[in-house]
Amino acid sequence: MSNLLDQLKEYTIVVADTGDIDSIEAFTPRDATTNPSLIKAAAAMPEYAEVVDAALASGKAETGDGADARAVVDAAIDRLAVEFGHRILKIIPGRVSTEVDARLSFDMEATIEKARRIIDLYAEHGVGKERVLIKIASTWEGIEAARQLEEEGIHCNLTLLFGLHQAVACAEAKVTLISPFVGRILDWYKKDTGRDHYPAHEDPGVLSVTEIYNYYKKFGYETEVMGASFRNIGEICELAGCDLLTIAPSLLTELQTTEGELPRKLSPEMAKASDVERVSMDRETFDKMHGEDRMATDKLAEGIDGFAAAQVSLEEMLLGRLHS
User: Fold this and answer.
1) CATH value at residue 186
2) 55-84 pLDDT, tens per residue?
3) How many Å separate Cα 292 from the centre of its chain?
4) Catalytic residue among 40, 114, 129, 135
5) Which residues pair with 181 in a beta bridge?
6) 69 contacts: CB under 8 Å, gap ≥ 6
7) pTM for the complete prediction?
8) Residue 285 domain boundaries
9) From CA 133, how far away is CA 122, in angstroms rounded?
10) What span, in angstroms and rounded, lies between the C-alpha atoms of 237 and 38?
11) Residue 2: count of CB within 10 angstroms of its CB
């Protein structure tokens, strides 16, 4: 009997949720995804000191002599994220997700500008835009930015996605991929209900991703579904068959060292037979559905704040390195 990770890879594209090169080499995922917290964790490792120093040097060169330290760091952060992405792409066959500053989540034009910059920096490394996913929060403005970027051939990963309304808007904007956050949904329901445990098949995050997957396959949308933010391998096993799953190294290890049968739980055929009603989406409908969904409202705001705080923390770390 094979381990759960090998079986999962038969149904689902496995993505490594880490910026650590060693972890990616160990688990051989097709794709990888990063965020400021993961970049900071990797950048703090002694083995990547020269990567950080090179990014700061490039930031200085880009901004010119006498530039404000924060301007240098702002330029360096983009270069650092792309440098890690470039290194990751040398060892995986697929794509890497690189995140736009979460503080731009409600600014469509600034998001588009930042995405173009990231793609240009990858191009300096000889990396084509087909191998990069620009990671953007699933606000209405973020989704509309992604719509325009996709029209330009820049592919997007819409993150911090907690509700069907966000998923439908993303699909209609023809974004490449969405990342619904399984574990964060579970966290909210546990706190809201006072329950300390949900069986995997009743897990609210699992049910949300299943609903979104079935909706997409039922109505023929091409946008890919990548479940993210897992708390345990039970959630992962319940989503076997999802287009992609992005999984932290600790859970990849658990899957790799666990043997047992892993049946497929999601498939286009089952989705076609599901009882799902189509939603007509516009800004008014999006805002109404979002306002009525306390969980999605809370977790989107919390997620943006958290990603923004991680970005600030990374900036402060680089400022410290710049002044050392």
Assistant:
1) 3.20.20.70
2) 888 989 999 888 889 999 999 999 999 999
3) 25
4) 135
5) 228
6) 319, 322, 323
7) 0.94
8) 4-323
9) 11
10) 24
11) 12
